[in-house]
Amino acid sequence: MWKSSLVAALALATLLVPTEGRACATCACGDPTLTSMGTEQPFAGRLRFATQMRAWGMTTGQQAVDAVSLRELRMDLSVAYAPLSWLFLSATLPLQTRAVRDVSLARETAWGVGDMEISAKAFVFRDREFSPDHLFGVLVGARLPTSTTVRDANGRQLSLDAQLGTGSLDPLLGLSYSTFRADWSFFASATGYLPTRGREGFRAGPSLRTTLAAQYQPDPRWALHLALDGLLDGASDTHGVRDPVGSGVIAYLSPDVLFSPATDVVMSLGVRVPVLNFLHGNVRQLPILQAAVAYDL
What we know:
single chain; mainly beta; Lipocalin; 2 helices; signal; Transporter; FApF
């Protein structure tokens, strides 16, 4: 009898030993809003992986005179980790294939690793710890010169347009705000880049990227997202010689559909359509097609 009682006591003690709790990302942050990479709510220990595919292109100059066209297919591999409930650390590594063709039909192609971007996002204000309605964050980071100089089969260096990165160290600083209202959520951000001098003495101009977005989510499995993305680029220079081509302002209307086929998986499909173009140098930007998958581990 005493042996049976001892076994029962040991079994009960085992059940009372605390173990690590695990929950889905929605449960842990207290909000069911589907989010793309970079707009998620934080909680300590959150680990998120994502991949995003983008196809885009642009043409500069006058047709049959000095036109240069660029086409690129890019895949961004991203990881984000929150060591604390108010801090997100993230890194994004782009894999790119790029083709450049000028009016003479000369063609350059390149593929490989682009310039990695690392950042830390600190949430400096939240109206409550669990399931906040308002989040305000500060972003700091840098774009790193991880791309290598691409050369052709004869060892000649490709043009700057065909390179997969500038080869410069570019600090960045940004602000973001999110608010959540039942089926609706809203997001605003502004991020500035201050490039340094890189490959062949080239220095890209300072730039500011902005986003204003609204999302409607009538169901836990899907949502409609609409954003207005803006880009303000300063003039670049090479060895101090100023080049205004490509500088100016451009804005995109960006509709997306988000879908969650399984717990902790978010897929998105969308397009960025240029609706305002005040870029110097007769720059014609094509719509940008994009698809992404994010997974919380």
